[in-house]
Amino acid sequence: MATVEQQKLLNQLELFLKEATSEEQSLVSDIITGLEAKRNGSFRTYIAALTQMEGCFLDNGDYEVRLPIQPLIENPLKMTHGGITATLLDTTMGSLVNRSLPVSQAAVTSEMNIHYIKPGIGQFLRCVASLSHKGNNLCITEAKVFNDQEKLIAMATATFFIIARPTE
After folding, report:
1. Is the pTM for the entire model greater than 0.85?
2. What is the CATH number of domain 51-164?
């Protein structure tokens, strides 16, 4: 039996879907799929799960994150929202730094400078981050975002402050 909150959510979803466009229906499906992927451990964060970001280390030690371009992340001009590009840069650089630290430490962004160069359009964006400096308290990184045609979309530098990893 559904709780009151669950029934309210089901009613809200049913009303929305009655008049939803095919794009809206697809977005709802993608959001639910992302939430399920986060719950089953396929993604570490909701933002990565909802946007379908996937990352990996490259052979040279850099870190890469790919982000499919989809309506969820587009602005009204049908290009990737600048805030999403900033999130992609921050996620890629932060993932690189955090994966380079001992498990007892974590890194948080303390400063980021972004240069937007071209609109984020195409099938996907690919961000590659490298570590410029690793100190005891600070790490400096740089990253570049490319579209599916390997054209430079944005670039950034960031400083990450190293902290003790909070215990749960």
Report:
1. yes
2. 3.10.129.10
